[in-house]
Amino acid sequence: MFLLSPINKKANITHERGSNVVYLCMEFSELIKLRQSVRKYTDQSVEREKITACLEAARLAPSANNSQPWKFIVVDDPELKNRVADCTASLGMNKFTYQAPVIVVVVLEKENLFSSLGGKVKDKIFCHYDVGLAVGQFCLQAAELGLGTCIIGWFHEKKIRKLLNISKNRRIPLIISLGYSEASVREKNRKPIDEISSWNAYKN
Ligand SMILES: Cc1cc2nc3c(=O)[nH]c(=O)nc-3n(C[C@H](O)[C@H](O)[C@H](O)COP(=O)(O)O)c2cc1C
User: Fold this and answer.
1) Of 150, 155, 185, 186, which is best to mutate to test ligand 1, by the most ligand atoms within 8 angstroms of its C-beta?
2) Which residue lies with its CA nearest to atom 29 of ligand 1?
3) Sheet holding 102-108, edge to edge
4) Domain boundaries, the chain
5) How far apart are CA 132 and CA 77, in angstroms?
6) Looking at the domain that runs over 14-186, which CATH code has it been given?
7) Is the CB of 188 under 6 A from ligand 1?
8) How far apart are CA 144 and CA 138, in angstroms?
9) Burial letters for 133-157: b for 16+ Cβ neighbours within 10 Å, e otherwise?
10) What confidence tens digit (pLDDT) does each residue in 92-112 have?
């Protein structure tokens, strides 16, 4: 179930012709308020078309030198998904992954030569930023489709690698839980804008 809140009442609901994909078609400023970490899911399964739309949003993300250093493994087989959930839930964290019908495992692929050389010269690891942007776009697209996500960084990487046959030389920076949200939309808890920004000079 998708809970309408004062924030998303304004959304227009449109159907993609000939498919199950329903876009809420809202202002971007509304969408970014609607996207939140969802830790409570219904047991409704997620249509593959909608997951594909989220993958498409991630695919279109910018990356340093257009390197696109990512792969997304969609785990929607219930038994396998619960085995991935086993790898995320520890010390009281991330139990909601058992509830989420889908888990997407993000694999960091090799950057292209220009991106890695540029990163070495500038002492930056561009591919990490790239993955963050792609994951962000995935989650925003999910929100527009009425889906909830949670970006997860706390998991047993080695066990997931083994479970999904991911080679040892690949890192798993993040995973994403995905499903229909059972949580209502919260106000954002964020630092004030003048604490995080300044004009024309750095401000302490
Ligand atoms: C890189 C990253 C790792 C995160 N890891 C986890 C996690 O392991 N478990 C979890 O419940 N939330 C995790 N989160 C979600 C954050 O806690 C959440 O984004 C933040 O508190 C802001 O709340 P909001 O997403 O609802 O706006 C992660 C978010 C990011 C960006």
Assistant:
1) 150
2) 151
3) 70-75, 102-108, 171-179, 148-152
4) 14-186
5) 25
6) 3.40.109.10
7) yes
8) 10
9) ebbbbbbbbbbbbbbbbbbbeebbe
10) 999 999 999 999 999 999 998
